[in-house]
Design a protein that fits this description.
- It is built from three helices and 33 strands.
- By secondary structure, the chain is mostly beta strands.
- The protein has a domain of 137 residues.
- The strands form four sheets. The chain has a 26-stranded antiparallel β-barrel.
- Strand 27 and strand 28 form a beta hairpin.
Length: 658
């Protein structure tokens, strides 16, 4: 695959260079960099996602070349050569009539070994229904994802609205990940290494033209194919080391039409109709989707604009008997949901004064789901213990039914005001009201308010203050009955002391509170509608969850004499989570019969990040820059040592422009 990409880049470069060879005037620019990079990691990397999958060490390099002339543009670049994150781009433009571009990106995804369990009073307790296979180095698995895209665009001379374009995209994934399978020797599940080996290819063709001076029309068609060459799933046991879910070959064909029409200087209309069909080539499973939208913008004056939007989407799934019978206990009603959505929206933007602008909008959305709720059958009335004794929980409170129909109303309002002393303020409010949430966790009421104030101070100091507030609730599901509050406060400071020294600092504080009902206990006690005597099934109402997130950060840039520049940045994050409850532990191994849960899955995580760099550009050689940098990220989970770790990156390099 890499050879194919490089050949495509070179071929494109050669072709366009020939086109631009006779350009009488042009400007070239080229550059290269070479650096030594060392990444050291200790413990888990789960809390620092930017190091996900990166294993690179030793030498990396970049090269780029560009040429701008009367006949067009040519630009080619290759970055991170020699690392696990290589990427390259090519762009060529000949007289704005012929354009060719190519891009490739390679990244590695790291999959941590799966750990399942929960925290009881700050002590990690593994799940009893899940086990792992004994294979070498179970800590990490990597798979590589390479995505390459090639584009060719042809435009009519003096009329860019008339065009033809073609795009080819290929995504290749290979490596190892984690998969689960039933254990043939027990009733537990097993996690084991799985190979990843699949490819996706996508071709899109499009053409467009203008319709007189007031309109334009564009058509496109798309064809996608997905094939998986990995191993099939096996019934895992102690002697079977490879498991992999079956990913059937799939095919998608789609197309659409887009239009633009300007009947007057004050009115513009755009719209589109698109559709696609997905097919599983193994079992005949099919999904069809159609989307239509129309937008109109009316500008009666320079102060006022009004926009209306109408959106409709529908998809239908045709299952096969093989899929239906795989749904446990739902063979008779295993249809997936067919869904249709209609949404209408209108909003206005009005400049009331030179420093006052107001915006407002209203949106209504209607959803219909055929076959919704069939996956969540109601159970018989069950009896559970509470701190005050036994309670009967009716089926209406225990049923996770997805709404067949829901209607949402959303109202938004925003004001931007310029105040004295060049202070700027922006406030917004959003109200969501629905007859029911689509799912148990979705709110049927939500209020959100935001406020941002920017204050310029003397000596090039600017302070930004922000606050957000959200209050939402979900009442339609008796078991969950969720209520949530979220408050966020942010502050930022930027100070340009002079052209050589700048400084910045940011801080934020966020509190999140939940209140909901909950059911705790083992599976046997929670089913069948029997008395909970001798079991650990408990029903708790209005459980209080709280989370606090605090972040402080600072950064600075200092230009020193003789071409030296020093840069630095650092941040500290502190997150705590608490859910105080009273639930007996008599059914959990290792706990006395009289003990209780005092805090369910508490968290106390601290993340410290810091970096420093020094750059040197000789005054007599402005095109040459040397750089040395070091960065360290350290995170600690006070309750789970397996989630603590450290990553550090040291880098020394030199770059040059020509």
């Amino acid at each position: 695959m890499t050879r194919l990409i490089l050949l495509g880049l070179l071929a494109g470069g050669t072709a366009v260079s020939a086109l631009a060879a006779d350009a009488p005037a042009s400007s070239y620019e080229a550059g290269a960099s070479l650096r030594y990079v060392d990444l050291d990691t200790r413990g888990s990397r789960g809390q620092v996602s930017e190091y996900d999958g990166k294993l690179y060490k030793f030498m990396h390099g970049d090269i780029w070349v560009s040429n701008q002339g009367e006949k067009g543009l040519f630009d080619i670049s290759l970055f991170d050569i020699g690392s696990t994150e290589e990427n390259g781009t090519l762009h060529a433009d000949y007289k704005d009539t012929l354009r060719f571009s190519a891009k490739t990106d390679t990244i590695h995804h790291r999959r941590d070994f799966t750990r399942t369990g929960f925290l009881i009073n700050g002590i990690w307790t593994p799940a009893t229904h899940f086990t792992t296979m004994d294979f070498a180095q179970p800590g990490e698995f990597l798979f590589r994802r390479t995505e390459s895209t090639f584009n060719l665009d042809i435009f009519a001379a003096q009329n860019p609205a008339q065009f033809f374009s073609a795009e080819y995209r290929i995504v290749d994934k290979r490596g190892q990940a984690i998969a689960r399978a039933p254990n043939a020797l027990s009733s537990r599940s097993i996690a084991a290494p799985a190979n990843v080996d699949n490819i996706t290819q996508d071709v899109t063709l499009a053409a467009g033209t203008n319709i007189k001076q007031a309109g334009a029309l564009a058509l496109d068609i798309e064809h996608l194919e997905f094939k998986d060459y990995s191993y099939n799933m096996t019934n895992a046991n102690a002697s079977n080391r490879i498991v992999k879910p079956v990913y059937s070959a799939q095919r998608m064909t789609g197309g659409g039409v887009k239009f633009r029409y300007d009947p007057s200087k004050t009115l513009a209309v755009t719209g589109a109709v698109t559709g696609n069909s997905w097919d599983n080539l193994k079992n005949g499973y099919n999904k069809k989707a159609v989307v239509g939208t129309v937008n109109a913008t009316y500008r009666p004056s320079s102060r006022l604009s009004v926009t209306g939007k109408l959106y409709a989407r529908a998809y239908q799934i045709d299952e096969v008997q093989g899929y239906v019978t795989q749904i446990i206990n739902h063979a008779a009603q295993g249809n997936q949901m067919d869904k249709s959505t209609v949404r209408a929206e209108i909003f206005a933007n009005y400049k009331a004064a030179e420093k006052v602008r107001v915006k407002g909008g209203y949106r209504v959305e209607v959803n219909n789901r055929r076959d919704a709720g069939n996956f969540n059958e109601p159970t018989a009335t069950a009896f559970y213990l509470t701190p005050n004794g036994e309670i009967a929980v009716p089926p209406s409170a225990m049923t996770l039914v997805t709404a067949h129909n829901d209607v949402k109303h959303v109202l938004t309002a925003t004001a931007e005001v310029g105040l004295p002393l060049d202070i700027e303020a922006e406030a917004s409010y959003r109200r969501l009201q629905a007859n029911t949430g689509a799912y148990a966790i979705n709110p049927d009421r939500q209020d959100t308010a935001d406020l941002t104030v920017t204050v310029p101070l003397p000596k090039d100091v600017q302070v930004t203050l922000m606050t957000d507030y959200t209050d939402q609730a979900s009442h339609h599901f008796g078991l969950y009955n969720n209520r949530e509050w979220r408050n966020t406060y942010r502050a930022g400071l930027d100070w340009a002391m002079n052209r050589r020294v700048s400084f910045g600092a940011d801080a934020s504080y966020e509190t999140i509170r939940h209140r909901n009902n909950g059911l705790f206990g083992d599976g046997a006690a929670a089913a069948g509608g029997t008395s909970p005597a001798g079991s650990a099934a408990w029903w708790l109402e209005e459980i209080s969850h709280s989370q606090k997130n605090t972040v402080a950060a600072a950064r600075g840039r200092f230009e020193l004499p003789k071409g030296f520049t020093v840069l630095g940045n650092g941040s500290y994050t502190w997150m705590t989570v608490h859910a105080p409850i009273q639930w007996p532990l008599n059914a959990v191994a290792g706990y006395p019969a009289s003990s209780h849960v005092g805090d369910w899955t508490p968290r106390d995580i601290r993340i410290a990040r810091g970096g420093a760099a020094i750059e040197f550009t000789p005054p007599k050689y402005k095109s040459l820059t040397a750089r040395a940098s070091y960065r360290i990220d350290d995170w600690v989970d006070k309750f789970d040592a397996n989630n603590s770790g450290r990553a550090s990156v040291g880098e020394v390099g030199v770059s040059a422009k020509f």
